[in-house]
């Protein structure tokens, strides 16, 4: 049965293409949503761009007819801008002040009351990224849901970048004899992805095992090329860190994604690999390290000083790791080192947009706070001969309208997992300290 979907402003600001995401159902945009979009269209950040995109889409639709009467959508549905549903009595009784959110709730509620007397009743659903709006809708007896079309996977289906297989010991012996295995030889039900890691364990219960990586063409299982030697003084402390370093130091994989809780070593491993590639091997001209000033695109504010001084509080986690790698003893030493080297740049993501970045080792920290469009913007800046590493913890998000399954990091992991130019690793074991590991697990 067809439904009526009433869209909150934040859905359109999150994904302008959401207008087309409801198949053959009716999509309602309350008039107050247009006013909110108008107030955002001059912003220079992601919200402003999306507001302008929605405005252009609606303007093109206007050429087909009057928006308040309804415009046919490609999927068979109907788009309508609401102008007449302005009875706020019930909402006003429940919540008092008629805020913009309450006006949107009133529109959905009036549509629901209309449907109660309709010959062919349709359910009315309010779609909002705002949790409190959805709670208010529930109090009013309205069906409400989050915008789910941009969610890549369920929690249980997150791609981890590695898999453990229990095989007959003869299979492990064959690998050690020939130094490779055919993927087809394993008779797997699920497909292995290029650059995915495989841990073979003896199904008979012995300690016999092997650590392999799927080739870039996806047809062979090969040994890891790297030994467990230190990288800028950093040695992998567990199998997943070793797999991560394999990806980070492989020049044939220009896109690497790392995810994991705090203290699993994501930033430290990426920085160590970048320093090795830039300073020792001279594979890249510069090491560029950036993280979002959450939310991305906002002004860095009225903190005192020049740009570098303003950025320092946001970038301090990066400097902490650099101080560890350079083994500095005094405050301020790391600034002198970076100034003298000239090949390491710590930057806010705000200043990356619009650039072309060739021949650099690029590290993007806290990528879970980026939208899928922001991630696209950043990765599309990568020039010839560059390598980019995106990392973060999908379970620790500061963005108001993102969650663990709709953020930019999860999006790019899922979109690129079958591509030969990318590799992913989920780090699970904390190595910062026993206290840090317990905090990440228990709190």
TrEMBL record:
In the N-terminal section; belongs to the PINc/VapC protein family. Residues 3-135 form the PIN domain. InterPro entries: P-loop_NTPase, PhoH, PhoH2-like, PIN-like_dom_sf, PIN_dom. This is PhoH family protein. The keyword Acyltransferase does not apply. It comes from Paenibacillus pinisoli. GO terms for molecular function: ATP binding. Pfam families: PhoH (PF02562), PIN_4 (PF13638). One of its GO terms (cellular component) is cytosol. The keyword Repressor does not apply. Keywords: ATP-binding, Nucleotide-binding. It comes from the Bacteria.
